[in-house]
Recover the amino acids of this structure.
C-alpha cells in the first residue's frame, strides 16, 4: 500500500510539473528585453571554479554581492523570441541554471549535498521544485529551466553536459560562461569532455559504464543520434562496438566542492 501511495504521489508530482510548466514556455514571450552579456558570471567562474569543475563555495560566500548583481541582470531581461537569437537564448538559460544553482548552494552553505536542501519525493518536493527564480515577472524553478525550456524548446542533448547540479557526478561546471558567439564550440567541448571523463564515464574496450544521465535522458540522446551507442561514439575517444552492453554507474550526489 505504501509503495502504491508513493507511486501515486510521484505521478501527481510529474503531472503538476508538466501542467504548471505549460507556461514555462514563456521563452516564447515578447518581453521587450535586449540580449545580455555574461562577463560578470564568467569572472566569478574563473575565480572560484577549478579545472576539474569543483567549486570553492567557502570562498565564494564572500562574493555573493557580485553574484547577485549578475542575477539581477538576468532578472531584468527575460529572453524575447522576437529579438534574441537561438544561441543568445540558449546561452542565457544555461548560465541561468548554473548561476541560480550556485546561489542556492551558497544560501544554504555548508551543505553536504544539494538534495539535502529540500528533502522530499522526487518531482514532488525536491530542491529542483523550489520556485525561487524570478525573471521579469515570471517565476521558475530549476526543473522548469532544464525540462521545459532547455530540453523542450532547444532539443539539443549537449545541454546535459553544460548544466551542472552541484554534484560530483554531474558534468564538470565549466570555468567560463556560455556565450552566443561560442555556444556551439562550447557545447561540443563540454560533451566531449564529459563523455571522456574517467571519473564520470568508463569507456574501455568491451566494457562500457556511463553516467546515469545517459539513462535518465536516453530519449534525448537517441533523438539526436539514433541510438545511445551512436551518440557516445560521436564524442568518445574509445569506440563503443556494436553489440557492446552499456551499463550505468551509480550517481554521486555529494557537493562538487573543492
Amino acid at each position: 500500500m505504501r509503495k502504491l501511495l508513493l507511486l501515486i504521489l510521484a505521478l501527481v508530482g510529474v503531472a503538476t510539473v508538466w501542467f504548471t510548466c505549460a507556461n514555462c514556455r514563456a521563452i516564447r514571450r515578447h518581453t521587450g528585453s535586449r540580449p545580455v552579456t555574461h562577463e560578470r558570471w564568467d569572472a566569478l567562474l574563473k575565480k572560484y571554479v577549478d579545472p576539474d569543475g569543483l567549486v570553492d563555495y567557502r570562498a565564494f560566500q564572500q562574493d555573493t554581492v557580485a553574484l547577485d548583481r549578475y542575477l539581477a541582470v538576468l532578472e531584468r531581461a527575460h529572453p524575447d523570441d522576437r529579438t534574441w537569437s537561438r544561441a543568445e537564448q540558449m546561452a542565457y538559460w544555461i548560465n541561468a541554471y548554473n548561476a541560480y544553482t550556485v546561489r542556492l548552494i551558497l544560501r544554504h552553505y555548508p551543505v553536504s549535498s544539494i538534495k539535502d536542501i529540500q528533502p522530499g519525493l522526487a518531482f514532488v518536493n525536491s530542491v529542483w521544485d523550489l520556485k525561487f527564480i524570478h525573471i521579469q515577472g515570471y517565476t521558475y524553478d530549476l526543473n522548469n529551466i532544464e525540462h521545459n525550456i532547455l530540453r523542450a524548446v532547444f532539443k539539443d542533448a549537449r545541454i546535459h553536459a553544460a548544466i551542472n547540479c552541484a554534484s560530483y557526478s554531474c558534468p564538470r561546471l565549466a570555468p567560463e560562461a556560455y556565450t552566443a558567439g561560442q555556444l556551439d564550440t562550447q557545447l561540443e567541448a563540454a560533451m566531449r569532455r564529459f563523455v571522456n571523463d574517467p571519473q564520470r564515464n568508463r569507456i574501455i574496450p568491451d566494457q562500457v559504464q556511463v553516467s546515469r544521465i545517459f539513462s535518465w535522458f536516453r530519449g534525448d540522446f537517441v533523438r539526436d543520434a539514433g541510438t545511445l551507442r551512436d551518440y557516445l561514439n560521436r564524442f568518445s575517444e574509445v569506440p563503443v562496438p556494436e553489440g557492446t552492453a552499456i551499463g550505468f554507474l551509480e550517481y554521486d550526489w555529494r557537493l562538487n566542492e573543492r
